[in-house]
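Deviation from plan, reported transparently: adenosine-5'-triphosphate complex.
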Amino acid sequence: MAESSNWTHLHAQVHRTLLYRQILPSTQRLLVAVSGGQDSLCLIKLLLDLQPKWGWDLAIVHCDHRWRSDSQASANHVEQLAKNWGISYYLETASDIPKTEAAARKWRYQALTEIAIAHNYPYIVTGHTASDRAETLLYNLIRGSGADGLSALTWTRPLLDFQLPILDIRLGNAGDNPNSQISADFRWENQDENSQSKIQNLKSKIYLVRPLLEITRLQTGQFCLEQKLPIWEDSTNQNLQYSRNRIRSELLPYLETHFNPKAQQALAQTAELLRADVEYLELAASELLQRAMSPIADSPQVNFQLPLKLNRPILREAPLALQRRAMRQLLQQILPSAPSFESVEKLTSLIVAPNRSQTDPFPGGAIGRVEHPSIILDLKF
Ligand SMILES: Nc1ncnc2c1ncn2[C@@H]1O[C@H](COP(=O)(O)OP(=O)(O)OP(=O)(O)O)[C@@H](O)[C@H]1O
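Because the crystal trials were delayed, the predicted structure below was used instead.
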């Protein structure tokens, strides 16, 4: 697009962000997740307008959770927009209505990933904004998160942590769902080992990108108004039973009125700063863990099979922040679910505890014990 009268401050800002951050390379195939709400409509319009500069191949994907009575109408509305803009449209409809917000989100990311794999899109783009970042920070802060939770929502991340068993179940279901657009060749049960590893490989190359993280919801709303974009209002956004909605419509406005009129931007910036700190600390912790883990057998290969042996003098030299992170990384590998604060503290305390100190069992049954100069983790002693 020539930098004509249509070129707004927001176009320039997102264009600059993309140049600076290099999160959406030119000429790529981009799958844009559009709910029909103001953020994702703003996103797709900006990308369409920037398209001539970047040469992307754009498509829209919409996920119908079948949560609201108007959900099919909303899907039709998004489809019509895609038609008007002359771009491909993909729809995924939930075969079972997800019961909770978390289940809906999980289903949505699986559906997005599957469509991206099936139609060869290496980038999934979402309309998360600075306001979402601020809300996530507040939500996690209140629930007692460390820096990791406060720095949630990154500009880009590989979709690696979507485990294949989840994909497996969904792809199995796809056959029963007449609305599924996943072609039969991509159904997991139809895959031999070779093509399963090809899918895994492809998944590791799909990135989730959020180009609007510096733009507030107020700005996306104004943009939609100026550009006359037909927003499909999500009635569940008004429901104050959802904590996120209460943060959005009560807590943030309160903070802006009484504490800082730019609270959203300030909180989003805090998340951005913490993100870089967390990345640095996680890397340093993983190096510490590698150094502290000595295999129990003669094999030089470090792995996370029990029993495990940790070198206490090496751990003791490190600052507490790294000790905690290294212990959490270790527990992430051996516990059946995400380690709790208590589990991490329990294991960390063994770094300086007297000889023969022992923990009670962690979830899954492993026990930590000091056998000077090591910590041993095993199922029984
Ligand atoms: N039904 C949908 N279909 C397609 N894309 C969607 C849908 N819902 C949300 N998205 C995408 O996700 C972005 C964030 O949406 P929203 O804030 O409502 O979700 P959320 O549940 O908070 O998501 P997250 O868990 O990713 O933070 C939207 O801007 C849009 O790009």
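The chain has 14 helices and nine strands. We consider this an acceptable substitute for the interim report.
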